[in-house]
Amino acid sequence: MAIKYIVGIDEAGRGPLAGPVTVGAVLAKVSSLGWLVTEFFPHGIKDSKKLTPLGREEIFRRLQICAREGKVQIAHIHSAPIVIDQQGITWAVKSGIAKLLKKIDPKPKETEVRLDGLLKAPALFKYQHTIVRGDETEALIALASVVAKVRRDRLMINLAKKYPVYGFREHKGYGTKAHYEALKVYGPSKTHRLSYLCKMIDII
Predict the structure, then answer these.
(1) CA nearest to 94, candidates 21, 44, 165, 158
(2) Could you tell me if residue 133 is inside a domain?
(3) Which of 39, 70, 117, 143 could form an S-S bond across to 26 if both were Cys, CB 3.0 to 4.6 Å?
(4) Does some domain include residue 202?
(5) Which one, of 114, 141, 115, 142, lies nearest residue 46 by Cα?
(6) Neighbours of 67 (CB within 10 A)
(7) What SS3 state is found at 118?
(8) Is the pTM of this model over 0.85?
(9) Distance (Å, rounded) from C-alpha 98 to C-alpha 172?
(10) Could you give the angle at the alpha carbon of 77 between the alpha carbons of 128 and 47, nearest 5°?
(11) CB neighbours (10 Å) of residue 13?
């Protein structure tokens, strides 16, 4: 059976001290790939981390319009800090990918899955390819990285309202100097990854 669809998958938030790890996906018809590159990356494909926050938000806004028009399908999954602490970051990402593919529900025999870095899809997806720096060379992976990054950043900004002392709005949970200083004063919150802080005895 010929491949009709391609899904791009990437994650955001593997390294932060707080918040979830988020997996994003974008599904499109094979025939749409050329159009997607022209529409979203006229000056070359870029990984979401190399875009400005406003640039990511603009791409995400346009992606949502395309999704409403039925041109693409987009989705994301957050894996909570407690999952990361109990099962490890690799398991959390792997589980997130499986849940995400179940959510968008592509037919494995008609779908190719393209994943960034070292990511893998469930074995039932026979047509899958893991591409090192795929977010810099594959349009759907790059767009998936935007979905993951925007969705995670928005969540961290909301968590900043609940936990204002940590500065999540600015650093999104990453280990900045200001974040470490806040941890020394206030200790970890319920959204921190305690497994990531286990070596910081004076904080925990």
Answers:
(1) 21
(2) yes
(3) 143
(4) no
(5) 142
(6) 15
(7) coil
(8) yes
(9) 25
(10) 65
(11) 28
CA distance 48 to 44: 12
pLDDT for the residue 198: 80
**Structural domain includes residue 203:** no
Number of domains in the chain: 1
Q: What are phi and psi of 65, to 5 degrees?
A: -65, -45
User: Which residues of the chain, if any, have pLDDT below 50?
Assistant: 204
3-state SS class at 25: strand
Classify residue 53: in a domain, yes or no.
yes
Specify whether the CB–CB gap between 30 and 3 falls below 8 A: yes
Angle formed at CA 56 by CA 71 and CA 179, multiple of 5 degrees:
140
Tokens 């992606």 correspond to 63
- Looking at residue 70, which CATH number applies to its domain? 3.30.420.10
- Give the separation between CA 193 and CA 68, rounded to whole angstroms: 35
Q: How far apart are CA 121 and CA 101, in angstroms?
A: 8
pLDDT tens-digit series, residues 99-155: 999 999 999 999 999 999 999 999 999 999 999 999 999 999 999 999 999 999 999
Query: Are 96 and 77 spatial neighbours (Cβ–Cβ below 8 Å)?
Result: yes
CA 31, CA 41: separation in Å to the nearest integer? 17
Describe the strand order of the beta sheet including 5-12 as a list of residue ranges: 73-79, 21-29, 5-12, 111-116, 128-131
Residue 47 sits in which domain range?
5-196
